[in-house]
């Protein structure tokens, strides 16, 4: 595997620097060769973590499928999959993740997402975002059917039926034919040295409406203490041109439903902080939805 990577990069690897972040247990390292070549190598063994192995395998397959399209993504140069180990080798992008409180960065990200390509022919490897959203909110609807409004924070219980109705309309709101990253947050976005957006980690690529990634990005900014410009961008930025106010609210309701249901589940053994973070996400998106719909937030 090392020899194939070095052959692709044009020289012996003499230095590497690991990246941090994300939920995968695989490695991601920026490597340099004796001849000055560079690459980003993501690798994991099946024995170390079969889930990460399968995620990397899916990401490689998706990127190879999408290679003919003009993606705002680092080029995938090599995939090695011998059944025990998998490695993905990408071009290095010099850039930075957008800050949650940087309106200029938010606009640069949304500008980059406007050009996401349409999927003109069926690609079975890409999920249908509308069907995924429906599946993601099913658990919430079942939970509230059993527990009723008690499944919600106290201040939101008067809006239980409205919230459920919004989740039911979400699949129709986000249906479309555009490529959707479907896991888009600031840590999956890079602004390169020319100010252009580059998107990484394409494991969950799907087909849906052209504004869904922009909405999840703005939600992530709000979760991290920024995003005060989110509603203004939704009203004015071209990426949201096809989204009605109701569409946006339906999508936000579906995110809240997913996070609320997820927090009722046991924490994964290797992600002990995940449920606490999802509780924060649920709180932020519910309060945002409440502001948009004029719901009273007790104590707010």
From TrEMBL:
Alphabetically ordered keywords of this record: Transferase
Ranges of residues in domain Aminoglycoside phosphotransferase: 29-209
Keyword Metal-binding: no
Tree of life domain: Bacteria
Any one Gene Ontology molecular-function term assigned to this protein's record: transferase activity
Protein name: Aminoglycoside phosphotransferase
Species of origin: Amnibacterium flavum
């Amino acid at each position: 595997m090392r020899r194939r990577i070095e052959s692709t990069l044009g020289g012996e690897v003499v230095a590497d620097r690991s990246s941090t972040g994300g939920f995968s247990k695989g490695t991601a390292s920026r490597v340099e060769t004796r001849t000055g070549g560079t690459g980003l190598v993501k690798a994991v063994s099946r024995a170390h973590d079969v889930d990460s192995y399968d995620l990397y395998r899916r990401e490689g397959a998706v990127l190879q499928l999408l290679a003919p399209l003009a993606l705002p993504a680092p080029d995938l140069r090599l995939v090695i999959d011998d059944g025990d180990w998998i490695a993905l080798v990408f071009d290095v992008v010099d850039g930075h993740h957008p800050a949650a409180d940087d309106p200029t960065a938010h606009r640069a990200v949304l500008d980059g997402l406007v050009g996401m390509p349409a999927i003109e022919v069926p690609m079975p490897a890409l999920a249908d975002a509308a069907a995924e959203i429906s599946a993601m909110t099913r658990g919430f609807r079942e939970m509230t059917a059993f527990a009723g409004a008690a499944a919600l924070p106290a201040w939101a219980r008067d809006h239980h039926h409205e919230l459920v109705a919004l989740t039911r309309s979400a699949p129709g709101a986000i249906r479309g034919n555009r490529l959707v990253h479907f896991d888009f947050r600031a840590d999956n976005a890079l602004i390169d040295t020319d100010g252009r957006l580059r998107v990484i980690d394409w494991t969950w690529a799907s087909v849906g409406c052209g504004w869904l990634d922009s909405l999840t990005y703005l939600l992530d900014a709000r979760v991290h203490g920024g995003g005060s410009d989110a509603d203004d961008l939704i009203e004015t930025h071209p990426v949201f041109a096809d989204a009605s106010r109701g569409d946006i609210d339906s999508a936000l309701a579906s995110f809240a439903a997913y996070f609320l249901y997820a927090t009722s589940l046991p924490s994964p053994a290797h992600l002990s902080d995940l449920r606490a973070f999802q509780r924060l996400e649920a709180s932020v998106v519910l309060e945002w939805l409440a502001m948009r719909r004029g719901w009273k937030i007790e104590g707010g």
